[in-house]
Amino acid sequence: MILAIESSCDESALALFEPAAGLRREVISSQAEAHVRFGGVVPELASRMHLSALPLLLADYRSELAAVSTIAVTRGPGLLPCLSMGVSLARALALATGKPLVGVNHLRGHVHSPFIGLHAQNPAAFLAARADLLPHLGIIISGGNTLLVRLDTDLKVTVVARTVDDAAGEAFDKGAKLLGLPYPGGALIEQHAARGDVRKYVFPRGIPEKADLRMSFSGLKTALRYQLEKMSDAELAADLPDLCAGYQHAIIEQLVAKAGAALDRGAYRSVGLSGGVANNRTLRQRLTNVALQRGLPMLIAEPKHCGDNAGMIAFAAWADRGLPTGTAAAPAPSLTVEET
Ligand code: KG4
Fold first, then answer.
1. Is-above-0.85 flag for pTM?
2. Ligand 1: distance of its center to the CA of 63 in Å?
3. Ligand 1 centre from 132 Cα, in Å?
4. Domains 2-127+305-319 and 134-296 alike in fold
5. Cβ(331) – ligand 1 distance below 6 Å
């Protein structure tokens, strides 16, 4: 049984995973509310909140610690003061119990999270079922990353495409801020967009050329700013759903176009979607169509595994690495998805 600890940003989380049974006892303590008034995550505050939350969460696992065989912890990428809290706790646990410690790449947690459902369906047949789905195109869209990656049959991960500037989640959050919505604004943009007309405000598509797989989202918020400068507060309030619909549409259309172009270039056998922005229902629907049009199965991380969570860290510790023992776990804030 693997006990995993996640603390890379503003969620303190723990989870247990058993290869023969699956994930259980997943807990998350979110700090999101504490950071709202700052308009973003404050690393020092986040770190102190992990320091108080993690031991409290761990106390509830006391009766199961004896059955734990491996301790897994997110080693990066993330905010250094936050990563340090999880890694320190994991090291102390490993030292006190004599159990091996595995450092896990948070981004590879996102890469493997769409496969958690496949494992849950049939743990015994999981490895064979996954082998039939590789190579796989992983679409990871969060507040800090926008990546298309290839997961090969040997589990090697290669970046196929990425944003050259802002992440898609960042574009949602910065757009929300301009529209007067609180941080993090992605889900609120989605809510307002549901009542809006996507044709009323047309925003640019970053890098529209199909031959170029790179994505760009920073021009979008500038376009929104120029649009808002021409409008009164009353007009903004009246047209908020249409503005959100047009803005969300521009983000999603670029992601859909690049995912489609990437699939047409490589021989893939499945597509996966994960990361906080993967909670967006329109995005899920559009990307599912992209996969289905090409006859490929679409695996989407469950909502509880889209944002930061320890379940995907426990799962990736096993599904990605085959659990090497005694791996050093030092915080690695700038780890890339290609590193293990
Ligand atoms: O993966 P995640 O929890 O952590 C970071 O990378 O920080 O992703 C958070 C991001 C935020 O940018 C948030 O606005 C976005 O995911 N997000 C959404 C939705 N739910 C969360 N964006 C669009 N639509 C949503 N429903």
1. yes
2. 34
3. 30
4. yes
5. no
pLDDT above 80: residue 324: no
Parse the chain into domains and list their residue ranges: 2-127+305-319, 134-296
Give per-residue pLDDT as tens, 35-86. Answer: 888 888 899 999 999 999 999 999 999 999 999 999 999 999 999 999 999 9
The reply to whether ligand 1 has any atom less than 6 angstroms from the CB of 248 is no
* CA–CA distance, 38 with 15 (Å, rounded to integer): 29
Pocket flag, ligand 1, residue 175 (CB < 6 Å): no
Q: How far from 145 is each of 32, 59, 122, 155, 281, CA to CA, in Å?
A: 18, 32, 31, 20, 19
Ligand 1 in reach of 169 Cβ (< 6 A): yes
pLDDT digits (tens, 9 = 90+) for 155-177: 999 999 999 999 999 999 999 99
Question: What top-level class would CATH report for the domain 134-296?
Answer: alpha beta
The alpha carbon of 140 and the centre of ligand 1 are apart by a number of angstroms equal to 11
Which ligand 1 atom minimizes the distance to the CA of 41? Answer: 7
- Token pair listed for 236: 């903004």
With beta carbons less than 8 A apart as the criterion, state whether 288 and 114 touch.
no
- The CATH architecture of the domain made up of 2-127+305-319 is 2-Layer Sandwich (3.30)
Q: Which atom of ligand 1 is nearest to the CA of 248?
A: 23
